[in-house]
Amino acid sequence: MNERQEMETLRAELERANYEYYVQDAPTMSDYDYDHKMRRLEELEAAHPDWKTPDSPTQRVGGAVAEGFSEVVHQVPLESLQDVFSMEELSVFDQRVRETAERATYDVEPKVDGLSVALEYENGVFVRGATRGDGRVGEDVTENLRTIRSIPLRLPEALPRFIVRGEVFMPKSVFIRLNEERELNGQPLFANPRNAAAGSLRQLDPKVAAARHLDILVFNIQYAEGKTFSTHLETLEYLESQHFRVIPHTACSTIQQCSSRIQAIGDSREAFDFDIDGAVVKVNSLLDRQALGSTAKFPRWAAAYKYPPEQKPSTVVDIVVQVGRTGVLTPKAVIQPVRLAGTTVTNATLHNQDFIAEKDVRIGDTVLVQKAGEIIPEIVSVLKEKRPEGTVPYRLPDRCPVCGAPVVRDEDGAALRCTGAECPAQLQRHLVHFASRDAMDIEGLGPAAVKNLIDAGLLKTPGDLYSLKQEDLISLDRMGKKSAENLISAIEKSKQNDLSKLIFALGIRQVGQKAGQLLAQKFGSMDSLSSASEEELSAVPDIGPITAESITAWFSAPQSRHLIETLKEAGVNMESHAGPVGDTLSGLTFVLTGELSGMTRKAAGERIQALGGKVSGSVSKKTSYVVAGEAAGSKLRKAQELGIPILDEEAFIAMLEQS
Ligand code: AMP
Fold this sequence. Notes:
- By secondary structure, the chain is α+β, with helices and mostly antiparallel strands.
- The chain has 24 helices and 22 strands.
- The strands form six sheets. It has a five-stranded mixed sheet. A five-stranded antiparallel sheet has the order 14-13-12-15-16, with no helix packed on it. Strands 5-4-7-8 form a four-stranded antiparallel sheet.
- Helix 23 links the parallel strand 21 and strand 22.
- Helix 1 runs antiparallel to helix 2 (31-47), helix 12 (427-435) crosses helix 13 and helix 16 crosses helix 17.
- The protein is globular, with a radius of gyration of 33 Å.
- Bound molecules: adenosine monophosphate.
- Residues 80-81, 109, 111-112, 116, 132, 167, 219, 247, 280, 304 line the site of adenosine monophosphate (AMP).
- Adenosine monophosphate is lined by residues 80-81, 109, 111-112, 116, 132, 167, 219, 247, 280, 304.
């Protein structure tokens, strides 16, 4: 056998092994042999790159990172389904079908809650795969789909063109593992397997997609050149013969049979390793389907039965409050354990104070609990007739249960948030923000490094950053001598930052980078900012009353004062490099146009702002002065039309000097 033949044989053997393992769940090749053959094929492909093919099993591990996804126009649109929510609605569907196709029979399948994709094959080779998109145009996610082991890359029968449709999903077991890992790494959790699958399929890096272990169930032939079928069941059998993992399906001759099958699927939904959000009833005969046709949105020959979420009563044993990384207080009801949709549920989210007040959930209440699309169970209602005597309405605490700092309600929502500048629950987020480029700009102190330092017990509050020692750092994982040195010197350097950066770094709500600059210019030092009254603060242009209140509240908290003291003692600069702002130009708006000979326009703008004036980019009736340099254009003309005073460079400089 020459090397080329050997490659072909290896590919066929490995694909066969994939099929047996991932589709049939009946492996015949040992892991050892599989790995061995894969290694040999990789070697051969490396030696003969020209003989590499896109359908080779070696291509399943994820290739190069993409820059984006290109659009794919579906040859056959990926239609949506009409929903039915009760058995009555299902029989109305059946009656409509029978008006056209009197003897229709059906097929019932679980409705997999994932993402619809179309897989295209040319001459039996997988060439392209696309998401559903709007049904007509989707995105090309071929590279990511190739990593799904149950998608055959080469089919036993090589039709010139063949398109199938299926649902990509994340197996529940994979989902649980993935979220556990993400929690450990401090990454946001996926709400449900569907979101996780969607996120994974749209990864630009196919290696990430490969690591997510997605799977697929196919349920339709969209197009098969040179092949005809007369029923849906025949098409599913053909798909099986072509090594696809095919949706479980049951033939039913009456709608009553469909209905019991739907019930049975609903009862056993926990047994599937994929989430389902319903069951699909489809007319079996393809001729009947043609006669029934489609509306603008969906085929008339199919219906999706949606299961109501399962609900069970339980009692609220306690209400506990957790503080998230962003400082939001989340109340949770601890309930008497109940079995719900296959798992034992011991607590339910209460979202926020408004939710609790609206439903009037109290400790001791009997409540109805359900698990909807999300993984976290929720309380649907309180069974008031079962309320024991002596219960009281529940109110969230007005102090953070972790650090004791006051909590405030978000300006734009129902969330309550801890204001503690040194709250341990928020330490990681505070520090990442503190060190970020627009704040204290400490290079080398990104999320991973921060986590590392916190885990090692070296940081308990943001102030601890400035007492870190090189020796402490070197003992850490993934921290060499050089990086420890660099980090210490970056921390050291940050002490010289302008006050504006420090103000922003404190993470006071409402105080962004711009406000940091305005406040630093206006007050000139941390001392004078921290003792400013709400009136003084709101007098600064662009600082509104809500921001002013947030600033005074922040500085009044003992934790904040402690933080400022620690930073001061460490030698962090507390003064504005620009010095305090005058106010002789306050209330005046300037527009700069043309070229000045003595300074740049940017410098001129800064001088105006330093004296309390505002700079605007366009001339209007509200403009106080237009400063016109050489070669001034349309802005000057507009100023003349509106009769706005115009200053030449000399007059402008005289005004600055007088001020
Ligand atoms: P909807 O998006 O709610 O209109 O439901 C239609 C979607 O259900 C289709 O886009 C498919 O992605 C999905 N689906 C899941 N399982 C099946 C199935 N067995 N047959 C047809 N569609 C299915």
